[in-house]
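Hey L., structure's done. Input below.
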Amino acid sequence: MWTQSYDRALRDAVGLQSEVAQAIAREIGAVVTPEHGRRLARSTGIAPIAAEAYFKGRFYWNRRTADDLLRAIRYFEQAIALAPEYARAYAGLAACYVLLGHSSMSVLRPADALPKARAAARRPLALQDDLCEAHTP
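Output:
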């Protein structure tokens, strides 16, 4: 079984993700093209506090209750305020509005939620059009 230890400063937590992804790819024999390497590296440079807010937002988004989605929105907005270029945070925000506007959720009317989702979804596409999360809300 493959194991590796990583000891990094908290300020580089997002960069660590990229390094681990590349190490896993090497270990399983996947070919990481220069373009894929650039994509992985693109996620670095985000302030750790913004990344933490984003991850908290994803945590609450995954719980899929109305209250948790509203909480997730606050975390995504916090991440965006800290790092306006953080494409994943905009994608998370869009995903929240899509769910809140869904008829089964009955939190926001679709006419109110979907324009917010659309606006939030356009931003990550402008920042990083190859980001999968930007195409899935």
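The first helix runs from residue 13 to 27. The two ends are 36 Å apart (CA to CA).

-- N.
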